[in-house]
Amino acid sequence: MGKVAEVGERIALLRKHRQLTQHGLAALANVSYSLLTKVESGSRPASEGFVAACARALGVDISVLLGNSAPEASQDERLGKMLGRVRTQLDLYDLAPDETITPRPLPVLREAVRVANVVGQAARYESMAPVLPGLYAELHAAANTWTGTDRADAWGLLAEAYRCAHTVGIAAGYPDLSLIALNRMDWAARQAGDRAPALRAAREYLRITAYLRRHDYETGWRLNNAGRTHLEGTDPKTPGALIASGQLNLGAAVLSARTGDASRARDYLNEAERYAHQTGEDLETFWFGFGPTNVAVHRVITMIELGDYSHAIHLGEFILFPRGWLPTRIGHHHFDLARAYQRLNLPEQALRHLQIARQVAPGQARRHPLVRGVVLDLLQTSRHPSESLTRYAAWISL
Q1: In sequence order, what are the beta bridge partners of 290?
Q2: Rounded to an integer, what distance in angstroms lies between the CA atom of residue 78 and that of residue 63?
Q3: What domain range is 274 assigned to?
Q4: How far, in Å, CA of 284 to CA of 297, rounded?
Q5: For residue 340, is it within any domain?
Q6: Other C-beta atoms within 10 Å of 260: how many?
Q7: Are residues 214 and 306 in the same domain?
Q8: What pLDDT, in 10s, does the model give residues 20-57?
Q9: Of 142, 170, 191, which one is at a domain's C-terminal end?
Q10: Which Gene3D superfamilies does the record cross-reference, listed alphabetically (predicted)?
Q11: Burial of 176 (0-12, 13-18, 19+ CB in 10 A)
Q12: pLDDT by residue (tens digit) across 382-394?
């Protein structure tokens, strides 16, 4: 959090600018009038949930109240500061809920979690990160104070929200943040009622992606098996079970391809396709974008991993993405095609796909290690790098 007095001063300044009384802002933000007066005077610190509520009521970004929007700071510097607050909330998961927070109704919280994931999947990490600490505090309060099915739903939403910290941790180069977030995701998922099995299986898939980056395939297989164990006893009516099962098969296909087993990779892709026929295109369940398109995208990935670059390009160039498909998945597809073209010594086509990835999800392309690897290879194999390639390299700070 920002300094106690400074946060209170900013709230008071914006409140007066909006011509609101303290009673008026307290009512709009659904916070205690007494607490508001103490925060504004600097005699009481503002919690994450309190700041988030005031920011919503005042119609400003949370970073404005916290003073983290200095224009002279780079995007990554600002993001690093924001993630410090996210870490704090992840660390305080086992404390009693913040008594100053009155959670919003369940449909409103469900939409808030959906929006956070939409923003994250668009690689707009600087917009997502400031929202997470307050959202975590609010969902934590709801999960600990509500009863019945609402309580289980709140735990499920908290698990989905923790996934957002994994998303930004992986993208921004903070693997430790990703690890903590996925641990918290499983902790919340265990208490999510009938959504628990699939949420926990989805978490195992996300862990697999981290170990794929480390080339630790043995651990990847252990996690894949753990995910399947979570789904034992479920059926197609179990919320999210088909999606989690299908995605685990896609993970297994990539693991098989990484270890050179083309036959097993094909079998897992075919099994994933069977699930995709049942689910259709499902963008939002666990934010995997699971469905026939994602299976096709993974066919391209496995071909590239197996060294079959020409066939990967032939298939990948003709994939049509459904309207509204996840920008980060589209961006990653173009990373993969750029890698295939680079391996075939076709630098212009490789750069073309890197440029498309930049247009689709710039926050992802600028940070992703796959992009950096392809650009570095293009620079090293070119006697006279083009101006476009040089600019791209400068853009990713290479």
Answers
A1: 282
A2: 9
A3: 195-325
A4: 17
A5: no
A6: 11
A7: yes
A8: 899 999 999 988 999 999 999 988 989 888 998 998 88
A9: 191
A10: lambda repressor-like DNA-binding domains (1.10.260.40), Tetratricopeptide repeat domain (1.25.40.10)
A11: exposed
A12: 888 999 999 999 9
336 found inside a domain: no
Are 79 and 152 found together in one domain?
yes
The reply to whether 122 and 163 lie within a common domain is yes
Confidence of residue 4 (pLDDT cuts 50, 70, 90): low
- Among 51, 49, 152, 63, smallest CA distance to 103 is for 49
177 and 200 share a domain? no
In this structure, the answer to whether residues 316 and 393 fall within a common structural domain is: no
Say how many CA atoms lie within 13 Å of 136 toward its Cβ. Answer: 29
Give the pLDDT of residue 145. 96
Strands, E assignment, the chain? none
Domain match, 60 and 87 both = no
| Token pair 């499902």: residue | 282
Q: Which of 197, 152, 160, 198 is nearest to 182 (CA)?
A: 160
Over range 298-320, report the average pLDDT. Answer: 97
Specify the number of domains making up the chain: 4
Q: How far apart are CA 103 and CA 109, in angstroms?
A: 8
Report yes or no on 330 lying in a domain.
no
The pTM (predicted TM-score) of the whole model is: 0.87
Q: Do residues 93 and 187 make contact, with C-beta atoms less than 8 angstroms apart? A: yes
